[in-house]
């Protein structure tokens, strides 16, 4: 499945995604939960970016249609992050003991830029964000 099929009252929302090289593919079915940006030090260090854009989905709605990610214990026994062992793309996160929800990076979805249901509703861990981030935002808001 390579396109997003959004519900229009006729069925559930289905989104597809994968890694950069295409080895990992998946679909998630159901509504988006807690679309947010995380600026914690772990997300920043792992991604090489000042923040990451996360989405929650019901684990029951996740189906790996290609290879499954390689999992790295970011916090052993607490949280694991999934990535492609071939191209390095970051895909997902899961908390041990929580089989109900999986975190999917929005950028792993095929149509993240055009799906309005994915717009972040909050910024988590702002206190850990790169200090220049707030300055950048203020500078560009004043110029716009």
From TrEMBL:
GO MF term (any one): metal ion binding
Q: Where is the CENP-V/GFA domain?
A: 15-122
> Coiled coil where?
none
Keyword tags: Lyase, Metal-binding, Zinc
Asked if the Swiss-Prot or TrEMBL record annotates the protein with the keyword Transmembrane, the reply is no
Do the record's keywords include Metal-binding? yes
Family the entry assigns = Belongs to the Gfa family.
Protein known as: CENP-V/GFA domain-containing protein
What is the source species?
A: Streptomyces alanosinicus
């Amino acid at each position: 499945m390579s396109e997003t099929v959004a519900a229009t009252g006729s069925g559930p929302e289905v989104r597809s995604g994968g890694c950069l090289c295409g080895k990992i593919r998946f679909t998630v079915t159901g509504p988006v939960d807690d679309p947010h940006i995380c600026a914690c030090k772990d997300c920043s260090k792992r991604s090489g970016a000042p923040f990451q854009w996360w989405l929650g989905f019901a684990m029951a709605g996740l189906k790996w249609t290609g290879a499954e990610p390689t999992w790295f214990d970011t916090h052993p026994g607490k949280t694991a992050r999934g990535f492609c062992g071939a191209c390095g793309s970051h895909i997902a996160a899961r908390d041990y003991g929580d089989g109900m929800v999986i975190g999917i990076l929005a950028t792993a979805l095929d149509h993240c830029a055009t799906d309005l249901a994915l717009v972040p509703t909050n910024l988590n861990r702002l206190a850990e964000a790169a200090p220049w981030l707030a300055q950048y935002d203020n500078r560009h808001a004043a110029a716009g």
